[in-house]
Amino acid sequence: MKIIQYLGLALFVGGLLLFSLIPFIGQFTLDAEITDKKIKEEHQELLEVLKPMYGNTYSHQIAFVNDFNNYFDAYNDRLKEEEKWDEVIYEDYAFSITKASAHGPVQQHPWLFFAGALLLPIIGALMYIFPLHRDEPDGIKNNGTYFSSMKNRGWLGILTGTYLIGFYIILYWNAEYLTNLTDMVDGLSMFLSGEPASQWFLYGCLYTLAILVMGIRMFRRYKGNPYQIIRTYSVMFFQLAFAFLIPEILVLLNMPWHDFKNIWPLDYDFFFEYRIEGMLGSGALGMFMLVWGIILIILGVPIFTYFYGKRWYCSWICGCGGLAETLGDPYRHLSDKSLKAWKIERYMVHGVLVFAVVMTGFTIWNYFSGFGLLGDATGMLHQWYGFLIGAAFAGVIGTGFYPFMGNRVWCRFGCPLAAYLGIVQRFKSRFRITTNGGQCISCGNCSTYCEMGIDVKWYAQRGQNIVRASCVGCGICSAVCPRGVLKLENKSEKGRINEHPIIIGNDSIKVEN
Amino acid sequence: MIEAANYCNHSRDRHIVIIGNGISGITCARTIRKRDHHAKITIISGESQHFYSRTALMYLYMGHMRYENVKPYEDFFWEKNRFSLIHDWVTKVDLAEKKLFFKQSTDITYDILIIATGSIPKKFGWKGEELSGVQGFYGLQDLNEMEVNTKDIKHATVVGGGLIGIELCEMLHSRDISVTFLVKDKHFWGSVLPEEEGSLVDRHIREHGVDLRLSTTMEAMEGEGNGKVSRIKTDKGETINTQFVGLAIGVTPNVALFQNTSLEIETGVLVDPYFRTNIPNVFAIGDCAEFREKPDENRKNIEQVWYTGRMHGETLGYNLTSDKAHTYQPGVWFNSAKFFDIEYQTYGKVPATLEEKMGSFYWEHPNGKIGFRITFDAKTQAILGVNALGLRVSHEFFDCAINNQWKINKVMARLNEADFDPEFFDSHITSILQAYNHRFGTQITHKKLSFWSRLTGTSL
Ligand SMILES: Cc1cc2nc3c(=O)[nH]c(=O)nc-3n(C[C@H](O)[C@H](O)[C@H](O)COP(=O)(O)OP(=O)(O)OC[C@H]3O[C@@H](n4cnc5c(N)ncnc54)[C@H](O)[C@@H]3O)c2cc1C
Ligand code: SF4
Predict the structure, then answer these.
(1) Is residue B27 a contact partner of residue B317, using CB atoms and an 8 Å limit?
(2) CATH 3.30.390.30: which residues of chain B?
(3) Interface test with B, best of A506, A510, A512, A513 (most B CBs within 10 A)
């Protein structure tokens, strides 16, 4: 078994290396025909601007992109100098032109690279995962967590985090370097949506694969715990079907890309003009998207959260949650449990909620007032939100920081939907974590493994139920508690919040805790 | 009840000094502070600067947590609540002058002294006990010692079939060290668990690959020339090669400090139901306290568990800060533990061997890893206690049922309310009830939940 696991690790690492090297291979040649095909009518000038590149064969993507950017930026700079503001080009042509100019091994044998850089690591990972805990009885498998370099901010963890951060930065701001990788999944993309792969399709593939493969790891790790297993099936299903397949099929049907389980304000551009127009322009199904989205916001969230707590979304359906609960599971204990962190969390997450609401308010107001009012300011807001929250926070920090600050940094400090769900959960819900009388021994396992940084034992050891806005109901505290103290449940609101608990067992006197 | 004036010093800025920062000492300090703003409170421990959870020591060795994780309160807590902490060993107590002397710090005086010094591991006087690689397991110093003693070893032996013994087995096992576990009784924890429960745990211990030897004791330990233990001899005449011996045959009150003082001690520090020792303004709580008379017919004079330590601290803290002092009245007994992967909870009275006139009903899951026992008074049919292994049951429910002497049939009829297993787990309550009906010829049923209730996970 050990041999299979080592072999699997080797395949995984080998595949990952290949994946990381793919951007560095192949040649790039630009000509007038490609340029003409990729640019919009009003940017014909570019045909001239890029002329010096025509016919040159670059043996390196970086050199190609550098040259492209130089010519492109110089042109824009000149326009700005001449104050020809109308003619400045804001479109991002780097990705599409680089992709179209590439020719090399990846373009000739995309499936070969698909197999080597995607299938191979998956097979390797599964070879490592399947034998895990094979001969062990059901139970909690945290042995050695804090001795692990990967899980306890050792060099492996730091390396992983750095790689993830680097990947996200390139993905969001320099995707033109990833064109080879997208070519590798073009076939799959064509099959699903009839369109060549963008960087977002590549990202969607990786994201979904991460949830599926690491979901299988969850099955091994939490075997014997039906709550964890059913929950993991749920996030795997919603990612694969709702976030990956259905949106691509919609595109195939000439509909806007749409994730039916994503809810504003997490889906922060839901009310942006292009989205609204897209939905309104797509007939009955488009109308349904709009109405369904609004129903989720004003009815879905409060009703489901009333009955089940915010877990119905955060740890059962959500894509960010799905990744955190699978890929992020090995890092859950790294979240900060201090009172200080909780204070910062409350300011930040509610701050982002306010930001999202204000931005959306402006957007809708503008939409109906015919864009006269505050048009520029709204555009700025969109840009800043997209950059700061949508990309930097949710992506780079949200996932890149798994190995440093735990797997729920985004959900805890940044997600405006989590803030909204949390407010409902705290004040009007039947969900709570019930503490089992006086059985807590203050061991700290529950707090340590809480990904949201809730100091669970602080409540449990004083005999108090846990009712916290941030709890996503992952159920791990209950799973790791060695004394059977914690139970997640939906019950009558009566007795849910016990502010001054008295620990049962002592008949001499009653002391409020 | 005793009037405050006759109980202790109540001056406004009295100095209350607590030796020991374990659960009993800390609970007492917290309770005092909640009710008395002025008292000066000093907490002393030689083991650690801050209160940590002794019950979590094993998880440090197993890599589940680090030391920071097992501190029940963040470090700012102590200053915020104005607790002065002294991290040092008390070496001498002058009870007449009300003075404490330390290994390093300067001496202090007190108005009220609370002794909460806990326990130390019991030793037996075996041959070879002094060898290196032989140790007990109680505190942080032992944990560090164990790190050193078990580095790169292949085999270890654990002596003593109780809670700390099985924890040691699990700890060593987590580091891939093969373990031989010597247990004196016919089954694990024979002094507390009935045979069925004990055998259930025995099977589970073996399932983990531990070499469990029942009805076996250690005769002697032997070493090579280097002073390290290298083998042990059992009473069966076997020799086991081993590089580490964990001694876990129990603990005994830590009262060395008070030997040859005027404080009355027997095994522990002798106290009355108000935690008073024979010396005014000196009290004792937790593991180190020994009641002159049992607090209740079902309790022992010395109870060395987390929960009793907490209740002692709570009661004494209350007494020191109120108009009237109350006697210590522990409620329904409860305790819990975890044997490798199997959780154990107990409420009330379930002795290892059934007493006369005691009825008992035991159910076990066909997988042999889940068990449930309920004991009752054969005459009145009132419930006496329960053992639950591998399933979680509600403390509140059984506290209420046992306190109010519910008849066993009533308990069974409402057993579904006692289920504390997580959502989606197979409920065993129905199987237990069926087995009960079968055995006693009753026809007790539980109300079926409506679809709506099941959908929303609740009975409305
Ligand atoms: C490994 C282990 C696991 C356990 N697991 C459980 C469990 O799961 N459930 C349960 O109910 N119970 C358990 N127990 C028992 C429980 O931990 C004890 O009953 C409880 O901690 C006793 O608390 P205490 O406050 O009386 O004393 P302690 O926690 O022992 O604290 C006493 C403190 O006093 C200090 N001290 C003593 N003498 C001096 C001196 N001269 N100068 C300065 N300081 C001094 C010591 O350093 C020590 O820190 C376990 C015990 C051990 C060792
Ligand atoms: S894990 Fe359980 S016993 Fe440990 S501190 Fe949390 S609630 Fe208490």
Answers:
(1) yes
(2) 334-456
(3) A506
Strand ranges in B103-244 using DSSP code E only, listed in sequence order = 108-109, 112-115, 119-121, 134-135, 155-159, 178-182, 211-213, 218-223, 229-234, 239-241
**Is the CB of B64 less than 8 angstroms away from the CB of A143?**
yes
* Residue A405 vs residues A166, B91, B416: alpha-carbon distances, Å: 17, 44, 41
Rg (CA), chain B: 24
Chain A positions touching B343 (Cβ under 8 A) are 482-484
CATH number at B334-456: 3.30.390.30
Q: Which of residues 451-480 of A touch B (CB under 8 A)?
A: 457-458, 461, 475, 478-480
Q: Which amino acid is at B35?
A: R
Q: Is B430 on the interface with A (CB under 8 A)?
A: no
Instruction: List B residues 262-291 in contact with A (Cβ-Cβ < 8 A).
Output: none
Q: What are the backbone dihedrals phi and psi of residue B269, each rounded to the nearest 5 degrees, phi first?
A: -75, 125
Helix, strand, or coil (residue B339):
strand
> For residue B311, what are its two tokens?
């209740």
Residues 235-264, chain B, touching A (beta carbon < 8 A): none
* Residue A446 touches chain B, beta carbons under 8 Å: no
| pTM for this model (two decimals) | 0.96
Residue A217 token pair: 């790891």
Q: Does domain A430-511 have CATH number 3.10.20.880?
A: no
SS3 A237: helix
Distance between CA atoms of residues B221 and B241, nearest Å: 10
Interstrand relation of B251-253 and B239-241 (parallel, antiparallel or unpaired): unpaired
Q: Where are the domains of chain A?
A: 27-103, 430-511
The CATH fold of domain B134-249 = FAD/NAD(P)-binding domain (3.50.50)
How crowded is residue A99: how many other Cβ atoms within 10 Å of its Cβ?
24
Are A35 and A50 contacting, i.e. CB atoms less than 8 angstroms apart? yes
Q: Using a 6 Å cutoff on CB, does residue A440 contact ligand 2? A: yes
Question: How far is Cα of residue B189 from the mean position of the Cα atoms in its chain?
Answer: 14
Tens-digit pLDDT string for chain B (460 aa): 899 999 999 999 999 999 999 999 999 999 999 999 999 999 999 999 999 999 999 999 999 999 999 999 999 999 999 999 999 999 999 999 999 999 999 999 999 999 999 999 998 999 999 999 999 999 999 999 999 999 999 999 999 999 999 999 999 999 999 999 999 999 999 999 999 999 999 999 999 999 999 999 999 999 988 999 999 999 999 999 999 999 999 999 999 999 999 999 999 999 999 999 999 999 999 999 999 999 999 899 999 999 999 999 999 999 999 999 999 999 999 999 999 999 999 999 999 999 999 999 999 999 999 999 999 999 999 999 999 999 999 999 999 999 999 999 999 999 999 999 999 999 999 999 999 999 999 999 998 888 888 888 765 4
In chain B, residues under CATH classification 3.50.50.60 are 2-120+252-325, 134-249
DSSP B341-357: TEEEEEEE---SSPPTT
Structure token pair of residue B336: 């819990």
Provide CATH code, domain B2-120+252-325. Answer: 3.50.50.60
Task: Give A481 Cα–ligand 2 centroid separation in angstroms.
Answer: 5
ipTM for the predicted complex comes to 0.96
Report yes or no: B204 at the A interface, CB cutoff 8 Å. Answer: yes
